[in-house]
Amino acid sequence: MNLVLLGAPGVGKGTQAKLIMKKYSIPQISTGDILREAVRVHTPLGLKAQEYMNKGLLVPDEVVIGIIEDRLKSQDCEKGFILDGFPRTIPQAESLANAMRRLNMSLDHVINFELDEDILIKRLSGRRICEGCGTMYNVYFNPSSEDTVCNLCGKNLFQRKDDHLETIQERLKVYRAQTMPLIDYYKTKNKLVTMHLDGTEGPDLIFDQFCNLVES
Question: Which residue out of 73, 101, 160, 176 is catalytically annotated?
């Protein structure tokens, strides 16, 4: 089963990807992870990517798609894979389709997770992390009983810069401008499966819904 996961920051794609990996024994492919790995082992494309990264530049799409294509050739992708974080734009989606044709592969489903933006903002802006044990809380949905300290180890809780409201609003703006057009793109390809979430379901219930959708 070859999947692409779409959805705004905070929608829960990462959590669902881990559940999908476990049930279907297919790897989650993160562009950030495979870029770092390609750089670490000094593959030709990894060295090319490092040239851009060392200059503080974005790695061009053609280099990223080349690294992804190499990753899809790995033995652990024989049963399928989950692409999380790529593609982000229509040109990237078209490049991915070309790469998969070269490998005699095709996408089975593009899963689009939708959640009300107000809930997304609360999920992200409300996150607090323990500086000691790393336990995560949310001031709206799962607060610490000790307010600013961890229930488990008593260390202080902090908010990541990525979770500041201004940063979240900018991330959502970028998502709407760049990634949301992919929804229409994959809809025309008859690959899109949209899951409308209301914010009250736990991850296991969402996963059950996912399994029912893709297996029906």
Answer: 160
Is 88 catalytic? The answer is: yes
The counts of H helices and E strands in the chain are: 9, 8
Compute the half-sphere exposure of residue 144: CA atoms within 13 Å on the CB side of its CA. 22
Phi and psi angles of residue 75, each rounded to the nearest 5 degrees, phi first: -60, -35
- Domains along the sequence of the chain with CATH: 2-27+74-115+178-215 (3.40.50.300)
- Per residue in 76-118, pLDDT (tens digit) is 999 999 998 899 889 999 999 999 999 999 999 999 999 999 9
**pTM for this prediction:** 0.85
> Do residues 165 and 81 lie in contact, with contact meaning Cβ atoms separated by under 8 Å?
no
Distance from C-alpha of 140 to C-alpha of 120, rounded to nearest angstrom: 11
Based on the residue annotation, tell me whether 79 is a catalytic residue of this protein: no
Please pick, among 18, 36, 155, 171, the residue that the annotation labels catalytic.
171
